[in-house]
Write a structure and sequence with these properties.
- The protein is α+β, with helices and mostly antiparallel strands.
- It has one domain.
- Helices cover 35% and strands 15% of the residues.
- It has 4 helices and 4 strands.
- Helix 1 packs across helix 4.
Length: 124
């Protein structure tokens, strides 16, 4: 038996569709967070723009100091856009006042998991 097999799962404490949505959200945040390498605050406060909708303007995201997960028709994939103003070290030379824009690769079925989560999550 693997060493992690005896740990209690979060699902055992909850029941129904809510546990699946919460567990899915936690897993997706972990996967996206590992790929982006950003602080937890930037992950929690990100907006979501569903495919087919108009993404939030970059200037608006700067004012809100929040990032957005959106579908990129140009790259045919999910991208994360976080303005430099949303970061704690926004004025560092690393950002040079440019946003962080990263297209997430569909590794391990990430797009399918995002699709399931976005269909089942509560509305904003």
């Amino acid at each position: 038996m693997a060493w992690w097999a005896s740990w209690p799962t979060p699902r055992s404490k909850r029941s129904g569709w809510a546990s699946e949505v919460v567990d899915g959200r936690v897993f997706l945040l972990l996967r996206i967070g590992l790929r982006l390498g950003v602080r937890q605050k930037n992950l929690r406060q990100r907006l979501v723009c569903l495919p087919g909708r108009t993404p939030t303007a970059e200037r608006r995201l700067e004012l809100l100091r929040r990032g957005e997960l959106r579908w990129s028709a140009r790259d045919e994939g999910w991208e994360v856009l976080i303005p430099a103003a949303a970061f704690k070290n926004a004025h560092s030379s690393y950002f040079d006042s440019r946003p962080l824009r990263l297209v997430l690769l569909n590794l391990g079925g990430l797009y399918a998991e995002l699709d399931v989560y976005l269909r089942r999550r509560p509305p904003d």
